[in-house]
Write a structure and sequence with these properties.
It is a single chain. This protein has 412 residues and is mainly alpha-helical. The chain has one domain: Up-down Bundle (Growth Hormone, Chain: A). It is built from 16 helices and no strands. The longest helix is centred in the N-terminal third of the chain and has 32 residues.
Length: 412
């Protein structure tokens, strides 16, 4: 566990390996369970996008799917964060994963029997997003208590690998499953993978110091808002993540339409396209592990965001599968560097007792921004095409990065 001695020693400590946090048993259990369950999550992500595109044949509905997921995430972000500070986080994660498993089974049965309709997809997506409003703050805010303070950036990056790195295997497997037996197979496999998370949570040995419920929920929410108001750096970090997510990351949700309209590839090709950013995430984890012992996390955030924007703008102009894949790898690498840096800066700036609430806000701007941004991108794509719409978003990211970079420099 982190303490003052560790904090002071971290200044002169040698650079860490990317995998140093895995020496802690609790973190290792959590991370391993997430890798397995997130592989299924990515399979479902690809299958949902493919299903919506097949049912509607328009990128506008892909944007609507993302917006439907954004509303619950934004609405319940602070409540989910407060719950992570008030309820035992392991118990909370157990409950959220049970619900996510059940909704995956429902999707599978509806699709398998041919009864699936677009409104059902949107409704279940909204329910899942509501549940994840509680799941993500609990999972993120648990990390600093599982590793030493100087290992937090590496641990956050490894958590990113657990989600985005699983994106190497999940989408590829998902594409093969869709091509072989249909989208329902992805939903059923996703439901089964939650068993790994349950196993990891049951095996973890955590102290009983994480429950905070001495004041009313309204007071907890008020404290979280006041904390944000009082810390301008927190505002800067969250605003940067919001801008990157809203204007740059909608390429993820637009991928089925981009694959069909621009690159003219099938479900297998879509799976490979969705997998490529995950490979970049793996590379970013290795790079972050080398950087985590040093300073300059603010400059890393700004520089990664700037580079990401340029690459997104170029990706929108790509017209060949061979060019799209390496660009997506680079997008995954720079996006993960930016998000891991921002996540770490937010966590280290926040008092431990309030991390759940602040990570609820982080979850809101990271996922909510991406999901909300997908709707206008989908609408613009209906008018000017998917590629130009993505390029326009990349240009906006570049302009915002140029504005915030001078303010991020010098922040450790």
């Amino acid at each position: 566990m982190p303490d003052d001695a560790v904090t002071n020693a971290s200044i002169s400590a040698p650079r860490l390996s990317a995998f140093t946090p895995l020496r802690h048993r609790n973190f290792r259990l959590l991370w391993t369970g997430l890798v397995i369950s997130n592989t299924g999550t990515w399979m479902q992500f690809v299958a949902l996008g493919y299903l919506v595109d097949r049912l509607t044949q328009t990128p506008l509905y892909l944007g609507l799917l993302a917006a439907t997921q954004a509303v619950p995430r934004i609405t319940f972000a602070l409540v989910g964060g407060a719950a992570a500070d008030r309820i035992d986080r392991r118990r909370l994660l157990f409950m959220t994963n049970v619900v996510l498993m059940v909704t995956a089974l429902i999707l599978g049965f509806l699709t398998l029997t041919g009864r699936i309709q677009i409104w059902q997809v949107l409704l279940i997506a909204a329910i899942n997003s509501l549940v994840q409003s509680f799941d993500m703050p609990a999972r993120h805010s648990m990390v600093p208590s599982l590793v030493e303070e100087r290992e937090v950036l590496s641990a956050v990056s490894l958590n990113s690998v657990a989600f985005n790195g699983a994106g190497i295997f999940g989408p590829s497997i998902g594409g093969l499953v869709i091509a072989s037996i249909g989208e329902a197979g992805c939903f059923f496999v996703n439901a089964a993978t939650y068993l790994s998370t349950f196993t990891a949570l049951l095996m973890m040995e955590l102290p009983r110091t994480e429950v905070v419920g001495r004041v009313r929920l309204s007071e907890d929410l008020k404290e979280g808002i006041n904390l944000l108001r009082q810390h301008r750096r927190l505002q800067l970090f969250l605003a940067t993540v919001a801008a990157l997510s809203f204007f740059g990351r909608p390429y993820i949700r637009m991928m089925p339409a981009f694959a069909r309209e621009v690159l003219h590839v099938d479900a297998r090709g879509l799976g490979l396209l969705q997998s490529a950013p995950g490979l970049g995430t793996i590379c970013s984890a290795l790079l972050v592990g080398w950087l985590s012992g040093g300073r300059g996390k603010g400059a890393l955030l700004g520089g990664a965001m700037l580079t990401f924007g340029f690459i997104v703008a170029f990706f929108g102009l790509a017209r060949s599968f061979a060019l799209a894949i390496p660009l997506l790898v680079l997008m995954g690498l720079t996006q993960s560097l930016a998000m891991a840096s921002a996540n770490t800066l937010v966590q280290l700036t926040t008092p431990p007792h309030a991390r759940g609430r602040v990570m609820g806000l982080y979850s809101m701007v990271a996922f909510g921004g991406f999901a909300l941004g997908s709707l206008p991108v989908g609408a613009v794509a209906d008018v000017i095409g998917v590629g130009p719409a993505l390029s326009l978003g990349g240009v906006v990211v570049v302009l915002i990065a140029l504005f915030v970079l001078p303010r991020l420099r010098g922040i450790d």
